[in-house]
């Protein structure tokens, strides 16, 4: 496992001067005269500003901790004799024949062309700037995308009446970006925390914007301190306070006002309230949202202790939610304190194994089992197959927030560079787009003239998702599973004894022992 306190990270723009003391992460020798490039030194100068990844709001960050068990500690089984859903005709048993569609939902299902979707992108600047890429990319790929929490509350142009939102241009922009490219698959989901509910966001997006899916959120991403938003000015501070947000440090203190005016600190933060869950109240809220007209109600919960995870599973079952997404520690989009991101919560594999056990118990007594998804720094096709297999038959899809955002960022960067290179020459620009993005030609074939209206960061997500889908088909063909619903725990083997103990997946040297004995006998 990596050092618990390395005292230096690219996320916090800190480094060490000399060899490191393993326990503290400090340099072995702290030199008189050192300017303090390490995290302790930076904290001595900037205090609480050093808590968050830097520059806040403009980056997506994930934990650098190396957990004892992760997806790399499992290997995918191969087969050469038979497989589920594989025809005996070798001309039919080919990887392009693999079907990777799936669906989620309780009564009416949401069909997904791919078994992965975009995690909630909320009020951070990086999410706002890359939203069209994520929304349009998800729509043309036929999957889901979530508008994260606090979007209406942080919209500087939003209008409120009696403490309730009546107009939010930013939320409207986000919903329209998906709907304009919606093709009958997937959905746009609007996430709501306590502040969003108090501001009437569910009513606004369902009744005014025609949103069909609302996601209730327990905690912030893979952390439980709720959302943190940096505020650029005293005017924004006062606006947030009027809307009921917690602002820290507040400018009502005269000393804070004086220090802020001297530019000694600029870190003004808005926070949501902590997650305090009541089972009966949760069920009533789900029923209320449905009565408003929400066709789908989902729940996103986090890497809480096992008892609280069990509570989330039970509530999701009792309320018959359309989707339960469980987010493991390790992932993130940069909105949480750096050390909370590294040292808080249950890592993804451990969390999924707990969820599997809890759902199995509920199923044994005949309780409703919701569609489920797992999240937590998932980025490539092997993660997707392993995550679905490890939680089979309960996990229908995986949620990927940071990886999708990374694809959008890269696409946006190259799009800007191509515009600068081509200037006003539209024909050259279109040609360079087709040369840069491998998925662009297919999109041009599908959308014809409409292709010119697909922004580069949406093309990038489509291209990335196409790679994931193709890679997933390769792996599924390799285990003899031609549909997602046939992926199961038998497709995996544990590479270490600890991974086997955590997951109950057989250790690699003990797989197929009875079958081996039968064959050799």
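Q: What amino acid sequence fits the structure above?
A:
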């Amino acid at each position: 496992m990596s050092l618990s306190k390395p005292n230096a990270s690219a996320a916090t723009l800190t480094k060490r001067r000399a060899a490191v003391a393993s326990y503290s992460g400090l340099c072995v020798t702290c030199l008189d005269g050192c300017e303090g490039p390490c995290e302790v030194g930076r904290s001595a100068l900037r205090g609480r500003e050093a808590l968050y990844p830097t520059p806040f709001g403009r980056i997506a960050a994930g934990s650098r901790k190396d957990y004892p068990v992760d997806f790399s500690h499992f290997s995918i089984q191969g087969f050469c004799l038979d497989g589920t859903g594989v025809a005996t005709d070798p001309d039919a048993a080919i990887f392009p024949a693999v079907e990777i569609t799936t669906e989620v939902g309780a009564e009416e299902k949401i069909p997904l062309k791919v078994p992965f979707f975009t995690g909630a992108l909320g009020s951070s600047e990086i999410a706002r700037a890359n939203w069209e890429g994520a929304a349009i990319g998800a729509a043309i790929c036929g999957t889901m995308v979530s508008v994260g929490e606090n979007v209406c509350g942080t919209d500087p142009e939003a209008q409120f009446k009696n403490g309730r939102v009546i107009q939010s241009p930013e939320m409207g922009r986000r919903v329209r970006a998906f709907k304009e490219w919606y093709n009958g698959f997937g959905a746009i989901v609007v996430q709501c925390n306590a502040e969003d509910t108090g501001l009437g966001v569910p009513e606004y997006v369902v009744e005014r914007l025609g949103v069909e899916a609302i996601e209730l959120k327990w905690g912030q991403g893979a952390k439980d301190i709720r959302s943190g938003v940096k505020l650029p000015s005293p005017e924004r501070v006062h606006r947030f306070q009027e809307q009921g947000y917690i602002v820290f440090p507040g400018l009502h203190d005269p000393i804070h006002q004086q220090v802020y005016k001297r530019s000694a600190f600029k870190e003004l933060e808005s926070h949501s309230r902590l997650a305090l869950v009541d089972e009966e109240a949760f069920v009533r809220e789900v029923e209320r949202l449905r009565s408003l007209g929400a066709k789908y109600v989902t729940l996103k919960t986090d890497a809480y202790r096992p008892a609280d995870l069990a509570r989330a599973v039970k509530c999701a079952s009792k309320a018959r939610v359309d989707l339960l997404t469980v987010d493991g520690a390790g992932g993130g989009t940069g909105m949480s304190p750096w050390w909370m991101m590294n040292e808080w919560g249950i890592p993804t594999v451990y969390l999924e194994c707990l969820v599997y056990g809890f759902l199995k118990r509920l199923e044994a007594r005949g309780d409703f089992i919701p569609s489920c998804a797992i999240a937590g720094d998932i980025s490539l096709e092997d993660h997707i197959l392993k995550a679905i297999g490890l939680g089979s038959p309960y996990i229908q899809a995986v949620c990927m927030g940071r990886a999708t955002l990374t694809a959008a960022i890269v696409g946006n960067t190259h799009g800007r560079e191509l515009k600068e290179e081509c200037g006003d020459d539209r024909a050259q620009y279109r040609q360079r787009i087709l040369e840069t993005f491998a998925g662009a030609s297919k999109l041009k074939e599908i959308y014809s003239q409409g292709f010119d209206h697909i922004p580069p960061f949406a093309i990038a997500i489509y291209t990335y998702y196409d790679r994931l889908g193709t890679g997933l088909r390769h792996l599924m063909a390799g285990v003899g599973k031609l549909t997602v619903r046939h992926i199961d725990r038998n497709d995996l083997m544990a590479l270490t004894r600890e991974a086997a103990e955590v997951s109950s997946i057989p250790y690699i040297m003990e797989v197929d022992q009875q079958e081996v004995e039968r064959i050799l006998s």
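Q: And what stands out in the fold?
A: The mean pLDDT is 87.
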